[in-house]
Fold:
Amino acid sequence: MSWTDERVEKLKKMWADEHSASEIAKELGGVTRNAVIGKVHRLGLSNRATSNRSATAKAAPKERAAPAAAKPAPKPAAKAKPASPAVPAVKEEVELDENGIPISAARRAIIPAGQPLPPQPSANEISPEALAKVSEVEKTAKRLSLMELTEKTCKWPVGDPATEDFWFCGLGVQQGKPYCEAHVGVAFQPMSSRRDRRR
DNA sequence: CCCTGATTCGC
DNA sequence: GCGAATCAGG
Structure:
């Protein structure tokens, strides 16, 4: 099908009447909505009063035929050293919910300052014992900065990286592990830390 | 996943 | 000029 005066006129009329491109295409027949849109643009009657999308459209004009230059490829160093383990930040006491299940006190602790918190290994239940242990350890932690970490220091992060109140445990690591005993306890959880309690 | 219009570009 | 392919939003 070609764009005869008749068809173009119908297109104009329908477009002005706020029919969608797909509707117009279906009405005219023999053309796709893309064809309609293309024609609309060529006719120079694109934006209709409402929904002026040009703003967003022009804002980010994607370059399609330019693989030669400009490569995005900014990859975050995921192979670094520590990488937030299970659930860092151990400030609050272990809270229990209505069911007496230890709420990941850690989880809520850090939410405030930063926005782009790394994905937390969601539903992860840590034994109260382990958490308590961690709370203890924090008191004696070396509080090392990133640069002070070595293969022998616990790399467990504490606090919010977005604030000054952030440091690494720094205690002696467990053989072959990146964390001290206490933090290994919360970092490496068996599949199920909670035994099914009969009821 | 459905839809929308916008844009690009080979034809 | 045409419109499929692709893109960006809703």
About this structure: Residues 20-22, 33, 37-38, 40-41, 46-47, 51, 53-54, 57-58, 61-65 of chain A lie near DNA strand B (CB under 10 Å from a C1'). Residues 128-140 of chain A form the longest helix (13 residues).
